[in-house]
Amino acid sequence: MDLTPATALPKLLAAAWLLPLASFVVILFVGKRLGPHGKWAGYVAVGAIVSAFLLSCVAMFVVWLPNHELPVTHHGEHHEEGDEHDDAPADDDHQHGTAAILQDSPLTARAGHDSPFQLAAFQEGEAHADEHAAEAGHAANPPPTYYFGDWYSLGQFGNLKLTIGYYIDALTVTMFCMVTLIASCVHIYALGYMHDELHDPYHDHEVIVHGHHLSRPGRFHRFFQYLSLFCFSMLGIVIAGNVAMVFVFWELVGICSYFLIGFYFERHSASTAANKAFIVNRVGDFGMLIGMMALWASLGTFAFGDKQDAKGQTVLTESGAIAEPGIFSQLRTAENGYRLVPPASMIAEERRHQPALEANEETLSHTHGHWLLLVAGVGIFCGCVGKSAQFPLHVWLPDAMEGPTPVSALVHSATMVAAGVYLVGRFYPAFCPEALLVIAIIGCITLSLAATIAITATDIKRVLAYSTVSQLGYMMLALGLGGWIAGLFHLITHAFFKSLLFMCSGSVIHAVHTNDMTEMGGLRKKMPITAYTMLIGCLAIIGAGVPLTPIGFSGYFSKDSIIEQAWSHAQTNGGVYWVFLAMAVIGASMTAFYMFRLWFMTFTGAPRDHHKYDHAHESPRVMTGPLVLLAIFAIAVAWPAFRLTGLLEQAQPVGTAAGGSGMLIEDLVVPAEHLSHAPDIKLRAGLAAFSSAFIGVFGAAVVYLWGYLNPKEIKQTFKPIYTLLWNKWYFDQLYNVLFIRPALFIGRQIAAFDRGVIDWFLHSCAWTVRLFSMVFDVVFDRTLVDGTVNTAANWTWDFGLLLRRFQTGSLRQYVLFIVMGTWFMCLAYFAAAFVLMS
Amino acid sequence: MASAINNLLDWLLTSWLLSGLGLSVSTDSAIGYVVAAFIHIALIINLVAVGALVFIWLERKISGRIQDRLGPTRVGGKFGWLQTLADGLKLITKEDLMPDGADGFLFKIAPYISFAASIAAFIAIPFAGGPYPWIAQHLNTGVFFVIAVLGLEVFGVILAGYSSASKWSLFGAMREAAQVVSYEVPLGMCAVVPVLIAGSMDMVVIGNQQAGFFTNWFIFHDPATFITFWVYFTCALASVNRAPFDLAEAESELVAGFHTEYSGLRWSFFFMAEYGSMLSVSLLASILFLGGWHGPIPIASLLGLTAENGDVAGYVGNLLGLTNVLFKGVVGVSVMIWIRWTLPRLRIDQVMATCLKYCTPIAAVMFLGAVLWQYNLPGRTFFGLLAAPPAMFSVDEGWEAPPAVTTEPAKPAMVEVRVEGLTPQQVAANQERGN
Amino acid sequence: MTTSLLANLLTEPPGVAHYMTVGAVMFVCGAMCMATKRNALGVLMGIELVLNGANLNFIAFGSKYLDNGGPQLGLDGSLIALFVIVLAAAEAAVALAIALNFYNNHDSIDVDRADQLQG
Amino acid sequence: MNAIYWPSVFFLLFGAMACGFALAVLLSANIVRMAFYLVMSLAATAGLFFLAGQEFVGAMQLLIYVGGTLVLLIFGVMLTSQERFVNMKTLAGDWVIGMIAGGALLSLLTAAAFSVPEWRGPERAAVENLPIEPNATPIGMGLLGARVDQIGAPADERAGMAGYLFPFEIVSVHLLVVLIGAAYLARAKRRSNPLPTG
User: Fold this and answer.
1) Structural domain boundaries of chain A?
2) Do chains A and B touch (3 or more CB pairs under 8 A)?
């Protein structure tokens, strides 16, 4: 097989994508009969996902990496930068793009005062005067290589084209590897974790039916069936080539999460949680639909990329224009130097309103287009808010704990919540700075909010859930502040250590059969592997590492880059924008606090519940194996040696690295991402991150390890805050008051209206009709119709009676009839013949 | 003499009978018809009647010998050879009884029906072949006709059994009816085998095809025909309900079967019918299987006694053929008698089983075997050892096969065809000349 | 007139019409048998007669000794007659079986008893 | 003043027998006699067949029909061994109706028979010297699917004049079915309560 990416990648990734679907179908139809209680269904699913992972690895290491040279990353030492710009690709339109950036990048436009870029330049000294071009050079990243195409066209309605297509770039491949790897681990882990389901009947101790534990047939095979479908959907989102397809698989992911969260649907809590997740997601999807409509109505396409030929080259028209431009290349055209400029189709409306200004394009204010872009961006982001459990819609994620722990691991790390962040990253070119600001605000709120809640939670999985929310907030914050690479970087690293953490907690729960940390303690001796892998996870999530050196856990690199981005953003804009930075830092320390609180409470100290402690045991190898594997990844995945960031940089949307300036909010500037590598920023940010994390860990140790402070007293002291946090900021209650109650109220009103007015109207109509029909019945039906029919029937009856006489049943008379009949017929024939003759 | 008869009839018919109807008839052909018909009928009736006498005497002697007795010895000097005649006289002089409650008409007519049927079979049986065969009516479906008419004999038996208003008679008749009707099937199948080989149902043709040495007899044509002959003989025994198939007159159970109530002449008619049909099936067997009027050694043709050498030679040759045929028939009848006095009587179920379980399947298989043999070894005879004489390829059917049809899967029997245009009148004239 | 008719009958070859007349007589007799006999077997015999009457016509139309340039069936006549005979035998078998059943069920063979189909 | 044509004499004989015995069948009340007359009538019909030059069909008629009627007779005797069935009188009313209908039909048929002049019969000279054409082989060939009587005819006349192989096969299968069916119908049933009759 030829390994040219244009042909090989779609095949490989499609195979990797469809394998879980195949296993889903197989298990769906024959799952129950696969082995005892469907035991082999698990192996089917595991086989599918593992082979998918292998295929992804082939795509990554055999096809992608050899064919695409990694750009040298800037996340290492900053002073490499000088002798780096010469190996920036030097093709024409790139130069042109560079020039464009130079003349109308917001930075140069506002050069002279506190442009961090100039500031950095000055600090480097005059000797580096020629670095302007260089800086700008890799500030304006080249258009990323991607492979775009359609596998199958669902149909074309006007210019609305619905296709099953692919958009494959470095990000896609990376996500494929990450998702399939973690999914594989989760699958294998679940083989062990779900073995109770193999018992037939399975006794659910949390559900009481007529005073007995509910006993039902095991659902082992069904669990893996859902898992497979889940992976299939997630991979579908990752590989999707257009928004419509994204939306389809988006919903698929939603329904899968619904199934999985409600896996123990006999438990009331589980079913409600599933409903909650589903409904909350619908709210976000509504916004997403709006965004899609806005985009499609103005751009007329759903496709991400431009139409490509078999060799992966963009198809051009004779005039050299792109034949079928996708969303991104319509929004960021080379003519505009890849700046986000509302295309003519977006301004058309406005132009119609201002015919006078028809003449010259420049005088157009473009506000209309900007608003449209804002709506589109925020709309799309709404979907991401829903999926990634951002601030207004974050309430579903903690409840999603009701599902089996492997599901939580998958949902929280690789698949569902990652989908939101991934979509933001994918859509990044379409977000105008205002939209990014919204994203940043939402992310900031989310991360602080979730972190605070996580501090007080005692349910081990709940803590992890809130930490997930806050980490997602981090990612959103990074993306919103212009740190595209930082955000997605954190997405990937977080996927690893968060799944690790969840599996560890699952292992703990598996051992002690409770979620409540207050009943644990000292488990380190009982289950060392779990304990230390979890420790690794905690260190990774708090971003432990030696500051100012490329030594540390994976979280260290990603979180630091986020904070650096926040710092440079704050520096660039100043003023209120410092809040983002503050929140990020404080959130980091809170993260450290509650993570280690969790670890200390679970694994150290004296066991709080001896019965459970004695009962505890290390999990089987099938569960600890994935833990170790993931721990290794959690440590090492982000090391510069592996050039993950370089991989992401390959996929960075063109023009986004250069940041941009607000269109509606004039003084909003999204700084170019490379500016966050300025040494002073790295210095301060690194120290801030480290110190905050250290403070958090220290605090946790003081309270929960050494016990200098008694948590209960602290609770007493800050009771109002504690209750506030304990009740999760009363969000559920708030929504209950804000939405649910009103909804119910309105519903009742409407129902009353329905009964009182509509029903009354309908009933009266029905009554009238009935009356009329009764009259009609008597007047027309009974007399006319029935009369006719009855007369006909009577005639038939009489005729039948007549014929009845001939039907004597006597053979001999029949013969006579035949004879006479023949006779008369022949006679008639002859008579007729005679008449005709004469 | 013929002219005298002619004139007499001429005068009678013209002057008296037909002049009243206002038309005159030249009776040349009339006299031919009448005389020919009378001669044929006389010959056949004599054959049957005398045959009956002889066979009854023969049966008595044979049974006597078989039972270690002498049998009739006195009447007519040696061997009591006039014994049967005496019995006949006795029968004629006996009172003709008819039971009360009998259906008079049917009771009276039944023996004659049987007798007529068994005589009618002889109409189509040739006694000598050649270009001018000795045959009452030359039918080209002779075999078929004979078998059909033989089937009619049982009819009279049933009428007799029914009309005598006696249980014994009725049972006997029922038995015979069932027996004969079911035995007609294998009988017909067996008769079809030689027809298949000859490619004609014309018994003259069949007989002529077996001309020459005995190796050309159809019984030796191939194994199938060999077995078929014996099956045929068995079925013939049954269809003329001779022992061991004579359940119709099982003395031990039914007093005398269908002719319990009969006496005197009518009774003797039944017997004549029985022996007549015995003879006819034997003749049929001899013509179908045993070469008919051709002896084991073709003396007639060796001596040049054929029609080519003049009518007299042909006549003498036909006489030889007649003796051949009759000899074979008598031998057949004697074997029947022999069997009767040797084998015990079967039960009715055994009879039926013999027919349905053995004779019919064997006959069917033999038919198939004959077909395959004929298809694979056309033109061979004597179990395929010898080449068949050209006569075997000639079929005397009036219809001429044009080349167009030979593309059809043509039976070897139709390879070479001669046309013989004979109207009934000419046939009759031939008979006349022959006599 | 009668004389000349008889003369023609005696001196002229019979034609299709004569055969048809005989067939008609047999046909009518058969039909009348079916119509008048109360004995099921009588009805069967009537059927046989009817079939023979029809057959006679086929034979007549198929025979070339009766042909006078009128419409002719040729070989078809005898073939159809053959089929009629064979099928008539089959029909007789079935009819007899039916009659036998009827006799078993009603122990009678009076067709007038078989009038359950009376309207 | 021409000579008697003896075939027509025989025709008169056989025809008279056929018609007479058919009438006898119609008129006699005794089932067994009816059967007897029937056989006679059929035999006469066979004679008519012979006279028409159809020996094969005639022989067939004798074999099958007479055989079949023989069976008929047997059944008749078996069934009607009880006296009450032997003589089943026909009602006078039936006679009247039957005679009317029959007469009408007969007149109609005879009229139809003599309505076509070509059917009156051929010229004596035309048929007197016709050769005897045995028709067993053509019938056999026709049943095998080859129409030897059509060989001379031009193609358009022969179109659709295929042989009778297919009907032959159908009839054979039909016969088999009939045999089985008859055996099934006529099998002895042990019926505890006979159907309500009448």
Assistant:
1) 70-139+513-726, 732-807, 810-838
2) no
